[in-house]
Structures are given as C-alpha cells and as structure tokens.
Amino acid sequence: MASPQTLFILGATGHLGSQFLVNLAHSPAIPQLRVVALIRKLTPETQAKLKEIYKDLEIVEGSLDEAAEIKSQAEKADYVVNCASSDHLGSIQAILAGLGNRSESTGVPPIYIHVSGLGIIGDNSRGEFVAPEKVPHYSDIGFTIDQCLPTNPHVDCDTVIVAAGTRKERPIRTMILFPGLFYGIGDGIRKTSLLLRLYAGLAVQAGFAGTWGPGYSRVESLHVKDCAEALVIMFKAALEGKADEGRDGLYFAAAEQKVELREMARLIGDVMFEKGLLEKGGSHPLPPEVIAPFSEGGWSLLGSNTSVTPARLKLLGWEHRETRKKSFYESIPEEMELVLKDMQ
Is residue 203 part of a domain? Predict the structure, then answer.
C-alpha cells in the first residue's frame, strides 16, 4: 500500500491552525495524510494535544526564523499550509524555495496554501467615519494584488507568492486565503482569537479599551471554524483539480456581518471594567504611545474599512454556518473569559 502524502503545516498550535487540523481530521473528503508541524516552543503537553487532534503527526521544533529547516521540510512535502505569520517574508521565501526544488525534482507541482488577511484591501481611513457606500468593495473574482495600497500589510509577501504560482519554471500551485477578523472559541489548542488578546493587552497598558483613531472602521468577520473549513474546502478543491490557483488563486473569506471596531472595543472594555481590571469602561481612542509600536501597519489593519464578496469560496460550496449560530459581538463575553484567564 502506498504511503500517505505529506502535509507540512506552520502555525499548527494557533487559533486558526489548530482548528484547521481539527477540521481536516474530521473531513471524509480528504485522504489520510502524514502531517509534519513546525512548533516553536514544544512541550510534552503541546505534543500530546496535537497528536490527539491528528493521529499521524510528526513535530519539528523550530521558529519561523529557521529558514534552512523550513526549506528542508517544504522540499519533502506534497502540500504546505501556512497559518503562521502572514508577513514573515523569510519563512515564506524558504517555503517557496523548498517547494520549487520539489517541483523540479519530482516533476509534480506541489500545493501551497497561505493565510493572509483582508487588511490588504484596507482603505486607510484612520478610524474616521466613512459612509458604507463610499468604502471600496471588492470581489475576489477579478481581484489582483496591485489593486491594493502598496503600504498595506500583506502586499509584499502575497506578491511573491503569486509570482511563484504563475511562473513556468519550477511551478508551484499557490492559493491565498484572505479572511476577515476570525473569532470564537475554537476546538483546537488555542481557543481564543489574537484580536481579542491584542485589544485586552493594550487595554491593560492604557487603562481602558480603545481604538486606532475614533474607531469607526467597519470590517468583515467570521467564526474561526468557518475560516478553518474554508481552508479544508480550498485544499479539497486543489486535490480534485477544481481550484483556482496562481493569479486566480485569491480567496476572500467573510460572512454577512460587519464589525465596528469601536463597538468591539466597548464590549471588551465593559467586560474588563466590570472585573476591576480597567480604570473605566467603554471605548476611547488609544494614546499615541500605545499604538506607536505598530507603526503604519497597525493603522492599515485596525484603522481601515473593508468590504468584500467571497465569490470563489461560494462557488466551491462554502457556507458560514458557525457564524450564523453566534455573531462576533455575542461571542465576546465568553471569549473574553478565556482571554482574561490566560492573561492571569
């Protein structure tokens, strides 16, 4: 019997990455794979949890800065899924170099699925109010990276990935997922979203929960389980030869709900104030010294509006079922309980 093909995953212990492994393990449409996971800080507990999620799993200890190890693992993999940092150019270049070598040696183009984000299309409104009809709207069908502001996050890295997915020599089958803000308590190792953990940490620094500018920015969101299922559906379509790839392999993931970042911060602030963790509740603009370390990238991500249609995923049959069960705002109180417990 032929040995299973290999999937190399980065970000396997994160909110989305570990949820993807859960969904992958329970997907009858995906054949059994040998999974190799790059883990930065390996503990016996983490190892046990990962192997409980996915049985045929091997762990390689290392960080995103270890390009040689990443290149080596990518060269040995049939597929790579990157749920780690969207903008770590060195690790992305290492993945593409390894996959390019594999393509050349086997004659079979490997698959690379990369998780980016909708911050790439942000309008840089600096948190000021913009009428919904004046916010640029995009469909992923017909979307190209050069439509984005060149200073926006993800542009540089995603341009490199698309280039690798369109070349004729050492070809790679590339696909990029651009999710909105994903939230909700997951089934994987990391239960809570990075966004709520970030805002809670900044609230402790400032003494209140706050926003970039006045916080009128409105963005897409979706439940982490729906985001993970989008990755599984993309992967399945690629295995079946039905996926859009390369220049066309750009997939938006968003549900039919908008989140106003000012309202999100208000809910976080009220929860923390009620627990005696902040000096005041509600939402207020964050002081310059708190947001300065995030530079312009922070404004692009958290001071911009986004508006999209996820046409490609819909054509593949994707639905945001978990998002319909519990909205972003409804999820905040219970998710914040876990966030604050981890902070303590």
Answer: no
